[in-house]
Amino acid sequence: MQKETEMVPSLTWLQKLAGHPLLWGLVALLLLCPPFLPQTYVVQMTDTLLFVLLAVSINLLIGYGGMISLGHAAYFAIGGYTAGVLVTQAGMPMLVGLLAGPLAAALAAAVIGLFCVRVANAYFIMLTLAFGQLVYTVVWKWRALTGGDDGLVGVAPPAILLSEIHYYYFTLVIILACLVLIHRICESPFGTTLKAIRDTPSRARSIGIDVAGFKLAAFTMAGLFAGIAGSLYVFHNRGIFPQSALWVTSTDIMLMAVLGGANHFVGPIVGAIFLKTLNFVIPRLTEYWLFFLGVVVLLIAFVMPRGLMDGYDSLRARLKRMRG
After folding, report:
1. d(CA 301, CA 299)
2. Which pLDDT belongs to residue 15?
3. Quick one: CA torsion of 51, 56, 62, 66, rounded to 10 degrees?
4. In 3D, which of 121, 126, 104 has the Cα closest to residue 226?
């Protein structure tokens, strides 16, 4: 009986994860389609996977912690530059770069978070933006280490991963593992406490919850996963440029999370895939692609103000009522 009781928590989070049919449909497509696609599409799918992880990681702050960060791309860049510098300048193997990049990003997030989590609302946003711009300035100006505005180039994976399809599946395995881990974090008591802090921080503080401590932990974990995405990105892209740390990149990541639905775990995944697909398709159809992209985003904002997943859930509920 004791063993059966111990199995309940793990079954619970697995059942919740399995309750997302859209998520598993996407996983099936990601596993089966790439061998039949041109290389250009495989490259785009790998890039999309990395931004899926970025969108889910920032949702730890936005959707679960109620913290709007405009500097999240900084940890993506720190992870990428750390891995790239270790491989190109220190002669380290790729595995060392993949491990050191996320750790450097998490450490940077922990230090920056010490300042940011003690303030709220507009002050929090301004501090994250300021620290993000600081990281951007460092990687842009420190030419001897980062290559400056020419970027850090020549970062190649081992021979076994030089094939785009091989690197795609390598990335897919790591991203799926990260998504399962983030989902478990979100469904754990830690995630529940984080949502309580988001909804009523004063009440959480009054019952003895260390609000700043929980926010800092979420901030650090979000930086860690962004660093994983950055470390994978630098080998996928064969380099990295200062624009990866720019606030515009942070707003793109945040838009993916919000567009898909920050109140859903699957929302940022859908938002990242949707936005990256639009960015890939629309420029091939018209030179005014930014205009049409803006129109699409505005339409979604008006029709489904809580994101694509809210619209999907509403449609499922409506169809269920019609069948009933």
Report:
1. 5
2. 54
3. -160
4. 104
Closest CA to 219 of 129, 142, 106, 91: 106
Q: 3-state DSSP helix/strand/coil percent for the chain, to nearest 5? A: 80, 0, 20
Residue type, 321: R
Give 107: exposed, middle or buried? Use CB within 10 Å, 0-12, 13-18, 19+.
Answer: middle
Give the per-residue pLDDT at 8.
44
Q: What angle do CA 312, 313, 315 make, to 5 degrees?
A: 65
Domain ranges of the chain: 42-269
* The predicted structure's pLDDT at residue 99: 97
DSSP state of 152: E
Residue with tokens 């639009």: 278
Tokens 């009522």 sit at which residue?
A: 321
Q: Give me the pLDDT at residue 324, please.
A: 64
296 touches 308 (CB < 8 A)? no
Closest of 82, 78, 67 to residue 127, by C-alpha: 67
The separation between CA 122 and the C-alpha centre of its own chain, rounded to angstroms, equals: 22
Helices (H) and strands (E) in the chain, counts: 15, 2
Phi, psi of 242, rounded to the nearest 5 degrees: -55, -30
**Residues making up the chain, counted from first to last:** 324
Residue ranges, the chain, pLDDT below 70: 1-23, 324
Model pLDDT, residue 10: 46
> Three-class SS of residue 176?
helix
Q: What b/e string do you get for 80-92 counting C-beta neighbours within 10 Å, with b at 16 or more? A: bbbbbbbbbeeee
Question: CA 46, CA 135: separation in Å to the nearest integer?
Answer: 25
Backbone angles phi, psi at 239, to 5 degrees: 160, 180
Question: Pairing between strand 239-240 and 152-153?
Answer: antiparallel
Could you tell me which of 109, 79, 299, 118 has the C-alpha nearest to residue 223?
109
CA–CA distance, 108 with 319 (Å, rounded to integer): 47
Tell me, what's the pLDDT at 19?
Answer: 55
